[in-house]
Specification:
The protein is of the alpha+beta class. It has 20 helices and 27 strands. It has a 7-stranded mixed beta sheet with strand order 10-11-8-18-15-16-17. A 5-stranded mixed beta sheet has the order 13-21-20-19-14, sandwiched between helices. Strands 1-2-3-4 form a 4-stranded mixed beta sheet. The longest helix has 28 residues.
Length: 746
């Protein structure tokens, strides 16, 4: 029996519902299971035993609680259940489910525990277990941190297997045939004589049975879906423009709203005059909200035009009004008093640097917006009995709790209907739009209020990626890297983000050094320090969070030391790398790119490596130095993820992440003037253009012992590989993003 099958016998949730017409299956990892949310408000023709698979007269519904923002989360979760349930993806429908502690994220503990992902010691494993218990106690239902696949890989397959075996037991009871003589395929149980009993027909009997916990997961050699090329369940809708998103949601009687709050984030509203707005066509109501004002109208356009017509006097920002002040705050934070964490301190860096020819460099990374293509929106309806929220979100339980506080309703009476999202990149880990919609809806009880941000309002109030600065000192000897000392200063992402949820986060913030301190490099004298800068403009999780800046800092400085040593950039990284799966990514990308082969004049290749979210990723970027500027020609990526669940989606998500990362490294930043964001729309926050997109080759490796996610880990090394390639082609070392400040791109 598989290890997970043994876990199931100890911990599977056995329910007691016996309602004719349906059955639901799932499982929990702990002996004291959380209540099954599918039992609440259950229809008469359905029954629920556990939370992940529901079968009733209408068909088979798979609960996919990790939110989908375009990364294919619903599809991969459905495939994992369907693999063991013996159904095809065409036979099922998916539902994100409701906010519930039952759907807490079991994989977040790996990032929350203060240990390297390569640390498999008893202490590290115990700490992850403690963190997981804490997350379960909190019921932390979050999509993020590239955890959808790690969270789902075992538990959803087990849910499908338990459902399958319970349905076979139901068929045995109905037919009198031994379970051992039954098979399953295509949503039905097959009897020896060829008769088939559909899962739907067996659901009423299965509802009377205890789930069959003693199951064996299928041998990977027999997998029909996992590891095979699959067509995502949303591909037709997205290819034909029929996919519905949160912005498309409509309900009878709905009104529309738009808001303006202080563009100096955190400042107050001194006064306002809405007389002009109130006289405009379609305007129904002007509503003061926390920190600003809203207009309710008969359509979104009129609401936006009217709210922009309000004359408002704004208070000052609580952070430096100009960018010089932000950079100065970081520069002043490289002090012992501001030292937040030093998780990597090997050898004797100071002794190694004393008397050596010390190499020094400073690096900078700017604030960045998320800027998803789908406009940010939320619809809220408050009635006497309940509150309903329709929005795209990665944090449904936080949404539920916060709306309950605003409206005064019990959290159980706040119903969050999670919508498909047209992009997020971390944006939907915030819920400001929902809070404001709830405030407005309280003033129009009984009427659904759809709040939509204008692009300018979203850019102005987007909680950005952190601003960060790094300083490196190092030394080389005998053609090798001898000493490496990197200090990183940034405000705390976790404190800023969780502070808006009213959750204090004591202790160090490992995101300040994430993507730097945990690199599997064996440098004799090696130190990585994180310095906590004071709070500046509001910041939050942005794709790859701390590693999005630190992967650039760490690898570009390593590249500088390698070149100073006169070593080959690829060979020296391989020599330094002690972690076999990580070294294999370097070997793979070297083979893929033909590293070491002569290049024509004007061309250059740069390699970069970063381990983030437990995923080792190696990348090579090839550029050409043309008369008009740098052209990015090709990118090669090798990543170790343990198991590639969907090869097609894996390749696509990596390619998209590379375009995302390189586009931001080339062109994008958010800056402040007079305390307000300067960039208002895509025309002044430009990513990569289609004609600039390089050819991208991807290889997923399966040498590791753990299954990992790939939504973010390709991002951290991309900017570093680009900078290193530009140096190889031009001799110019770029240490700050966006790089178009120093070089043109074509």
């Amino acid at each position: 029996m598989s290890r997970i099958g043994k876990i199931a016998r100890r911990t599977f949730l056995v329910g007691s519902a016996t309602l004719v017409g349906g059955v639901a299956f799932g499982y929990f990892m702990y002996k004291r299971p959380v209540a099954n949310p599918l039992l609440d408000d259950l229809a008469e023709d359905a029954a629920a035993l556990t939370p992940y698979v529901k079968i009733d007269a209408s068909g088979i519904t798979l609960i996919t609680p990790r939110a989908d923002s375009g990364q294919g989360a619903y599809s991969v979760q459905a495939a994992l259940i369907a693999e063991e349930l013996d159904v095809t993806l065409e036979q099922i429908r998916v539902d994100p489910g409701m906010p519930s502690p039952a759907y807490y994220n079991t994989a977040l503990s790996a990032e929350a525990a203060p240990f390297r992902s390569t640390d498999e010691s008893f202490v590290a494993s115990s700490a992850r277990g403690v963190m997981d218990a804490m997350l379960k106690f909190m019921g932390l239902q979050i999509t993020g941190g590239s955890t959808t696949v790690p969270d789902s890989f075992e538990k959803l397959r087990l849910a499908g297997a338990v459902a399958r075996e319970t349905l076979k037991a139901a068929a045995a009871q109905q037919s009198g045939v031994s379970v051992a003589d039954l098979k399953t395929a295509n949503g039905a149980v097959e009897l020896p004589d060829g008769t088939t009993l559909s899962y739907v027909s067996l659901a009423p009997i299965a509802a009377t049975l205890d789930p069959v916990n003693d199951v064996t997961l299928r041998d990977p050699a027999t997998w029909r879906l996992v590891g095979k090329e699959m067509e995502r369940i949303d591909i037709v809708a997205k290819s034909t423009g029929t996919q519905g998103y949160g912005i498309d949601f409509e309900i009878d009687g709905m009104v529309h709203a738009s808001v303006r709050t202080n563009p100096r984030r955190g400042g107050n509203m001194v006064s306002y005059d809405a007389s002009a707005a109130e006289a405009m066509r379609g305007v129904q109501k002007v509503v003061p909200i926390t920190g600003g004002v809203a207009v309710v109208a008969d359509n979104t356009w009129r609401a936006i035009q009217a709210v922009n017509a309000i004359e408002i006097e704004w208070g000052d920002a609580p952070y430096p009004s100009e960018m010089d002040g932000h950079w100065a705050a970081l520069s002043d934070s490289f002090t012992q008093d501001a030292l937040d964490t030093r998780k990597r301190d090997e050898g004797d860096v100071e002794a190694a640097l004393e008397g050596a020819d010390v190499i020094e460099a400073e690096y900078r990374a700017p604030y960045l917006a998320h800027a998803p293509l789908e406009p940010i929106s939320a619809t809220v309806r408050v009635t006497d009995a309940r509150v309903d929220v329709w929005t795209g979100t990665q944090i449904p339980r936080f949404v539920q709790t916060n709306v309950a506080k605003i409206t005064g309703y019990d959290a159980d009476d706040v119903h969050v209907h999670v919508q498909v999202m047209g992009g997020s990149f971390g944006h939907r880990l915030e819920d400001r739009v929902v809070k404001e919609a709830a405030e407005i809806a309280m003033e129009l009880r009984g009427t659904p209020v759809k709040l939509t941000y204008s692009r300018e309002e979203d850019m102005t109030h987007n909680d950005t990626r952190q601003i960060a600065m790094a300083r490196g000192r190092g030394a080389v000897r005998d053609g090798k890297v001898e000493a490496y000392d990197l200090g990183i200063a940034m405000p705390s992402v976790v404190a800023s983000q969780m502070g808006r949820q009213g959750l204090p986060v004591p202790g160090p913030d490992l995101q300040i050094v994430a993507g730097a301190w945990e690199q599997p490099m064996s440098i004799p004298n090696y130190r990585v320090s994180g310095y906590r800068a004071p709070e500046l403009a509001p910041i939050t999780s942005w794709r790859a969070v701390g590693a999005s800046t630190n992967g650039f800092f760490h690898d570009v400085f390593l590249d500088e030391l390698i070149h100073a040593a006169g070593a080959d950039p690829m060979e020296e990284r391989m020599r330094l790398c002690w972690h076999d799966p990580s070294r294999k990514t370097l070997e793979a990308v070297a083979e893929m790119s033909g590293w070491g082969a002569p290049l024509p004049a004007g061309k250059g290749r740069g390699v970069a490596f970063c381990m983030s979210f437990g995923v080792p990723v190696a990348e090579v970027v090839e550029v050409t130095n043309t008369d008009s500027g740098i052209r990015i020609d090709k990118v090669w990526v090798a990543a170790e993820v343990g198991t590639v669940v969907d090869p097609v989606n894996f390749e696509n998500i990596v390619q998209g992440g590379i375009v995302w990362a390189l586009g931001h490294a080339m062109n994008a930043e958010v800056t402040y003037s007079d305390g307000m964001v300067d960039q208002m729309n895509y025309y002044d926050y430009e990513g990569m253009r289609m004609y600039q997109a390089p050819e991208i080759m991807v290889r997923g490796l399966e040498n590791g012992d753990h299954v990992r996610g790939m939504g973010e880990p390709m991002v951290p090394p991309a900017a570093a590989a680009l900078s290193n390639a530009i140096f190889a082609a031009t001799g110019q070392r770029i240490r700050e993003m966006p790089m178009n400040k120093f070089i043109d791109f074509v």
